[in-house]
Amino acid sequence: MRAESSATAPNTIAAAPDEGRPRPPAAISAPASAPARRGTLLALLGVVTFSLTFPSTAWGLESFGPWSLVALRSLLAAVLSGGFLLAARVRVPAREHWAGLAVVAGGVVVGFPLLTTLALRTSTTSHAAVVGGLLPLTTAVFSSLRTGTRPPRAFWAAALAGAAVVIAFTVAQSGGALSAGDLFLFGALLVCAAGYTEGGRLAKVLPGWQVTGWALILTLPLNLAGAAVALAYEPVRLGVHGVVGLVWVAAGSTFLGLYVWYRGMAEIGVARASQLQLAQPLLTLFWSFFLLGEEIAAAAPVAAVAVLVCIALTQRATRTRS
After folding, report:
1. How far is CA 254 from CA 107, 178, 322, in A?
2. In sequence order, what DSSP letters do the residues of 55-116 get, joined into one string?
3. pLDDT tens for each residue of 161-183
4. Which of 16, 31, 189, 217 lies 20 to 30 angstroms, CA to CA, from 117?
5. Three-point CA angle 215, 219, 224, nearest 5°
6. What does the alpha-carbon distance between residue 256 and residue 92 come to, in Å, rounded to a whole number?
């Protein structure tokens, strides 16, 4: 608010002779809405990068074992982030921020990649994508518990409706019972939601790319040891798909995606940004068909479109509340 006041002060002085005239509504609302538009666009860009994560992971598994892929993914992302931190001469975060960074590291850098990679050994990326539609709801719940925010009832009704669609799809596709892959995916949603919530909170006091960078640096010793052990026990069969998949999940999903995602959450709020991620299953279904040639079940796009309707409802609810 201070920045906006200082930016508009010169215009106010220059217009003093005409200060009796009514000002256009656009001149008043534009500064307030610009951060919201920017935050929404950044969050959407994060969703697009995340939508490629499952197909890229499937490609990476063509060349690497699951443990090797996860360790190398985080290791490469940490090197990339560390280079940016050194180049920008960023100071080490204050002591009070490290507990939050540890939650981000455990949930987003280690937990989610590991659990989803283990799940994709038996689940298709299209199935995993629709299950991932539960992430906005779990993130909203974690955010409410962590920050004390209370979205309106309409928000929760729409979010629960989206979750019900995802659960119904999952049970139907799994033959009436949850598979081991589904359990890995649900566990991934829980740890990722915790990491997203804490990362969104930290992004209000630290730039989003620094939140991601320091979380990656925090796991660097673990990933170095993990990569050394995993590569010694898991065979490596290098191929174009495997290398491209590894590079994308490291540079795209883990570094670029988290950077723009946390920036977006810091500007529009964790709960509101998380609902934009309901669009991710539909995007991943497209990539699964286009890149992997997977046969998409007829119920998958129907479930994804139904979830998209919930996005509009949750966004409308949060705008009405604000």
Report:
1. 12, 28, 31
2. HHHHHHTTTS-HHHHHHHHHHHHHHHHHHHHHHTTPPPPPGGGHHHHHHHIIIIIIIHHHHH
3. 877 887 787 777 766 666 778 88
4. 217
5. 145
6. 21
C-alpha span between 209 and 77 (Å, rounded): 12
How far apart CA 37 and CA 94 sit, in angstroms, is 30
Tell me the chain's radius of gyration from C-alpha atoms: 21
Give percent of the chain above pLDDT 70.
84
Separation of alpha carbons 294 and 306, rounded Å:
21
State the Cα–Cα distance between residues 265 and 274, nearest whole angstrom: 8
Residue 238 burial (CB count, 10 A) = 11
All residues at 6 or more sequence positions from 193 whose CB lies less than 8 Å from its CB, including other chains: 107, 135, 138, 139, 141, 142
Nearest-5° angle of CA 275, CA 278, CA 284? 150
And the tokens for 160?
């629960």
